[in-house]
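Today's session is about reading a structure prediction critically. Students often jump straight to the picture, but the first step is always the sequence itself: look for stretches that repeat, for charged clusters, for runs of hydrophobic residues. Only then move on to the predicted structure, which in these notes is written as discrete structure tokens rather than atom positions. Here is the chain we will use throughout the hour.
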Amino acid sequence: MASDPISEAGIVAALKKRAEVWIAADDHIAAQTVAVVVAEGMDEEAASLLRSARAKGSRRAVVVVSEVDDEGLLRAVDCEVGGLVRRREATADRLVQVISSVARGAGVVPPDLLGRLLRLSHLRGRTQDPGEARMHRLTRREEEVLKLVAVGLDTREIAERLAYSERTVKNDLAAVTDRFHLRNRSHAVAYAIREGFI
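Below is the predicted structure for this chain, in token form.
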């Protein structure tokens, strides 16, 4: 989906040649289908395209944007975007890599935006009601795991980085999704950022 037909045609043409992805017709969209939305910025138009994809059944999304400001980053979190790619970095290889990561439940954000995102989430978290925030906290290890999920690491890579077993990492992710009634890893990362936990 795109804000203009030329962008949509370009994305479809780039991905159609790749065996790793399958372009789903509107009547074959399922919850595990990763919607790819192309827009100028993470603005209300992009949010509308994401809502449209969700209405068709998709629960995972990658957004390709020209630029993204602080407000756009927070909007991406609120829209539960799993992957964010700048247009100038949106080669077919990069798109396939991000789509595959999001399909596995990972979250992908350009590394230079991650610091901004964490700073914004920290500022947002400081405006919460302190009593409510204390009731629903993440453990330090859960925070570490979710931060690494947010940069696109898989379970094995997270386990190696933190010197835990893969089972421990999976248990931490399951604990977070169960505790906060979340659907998957991407939703957990989006929720943790939106709530100011990471």
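Discussion point for the tutorial: Residues 130-135 have pLDDT under 50 and may be disordered.
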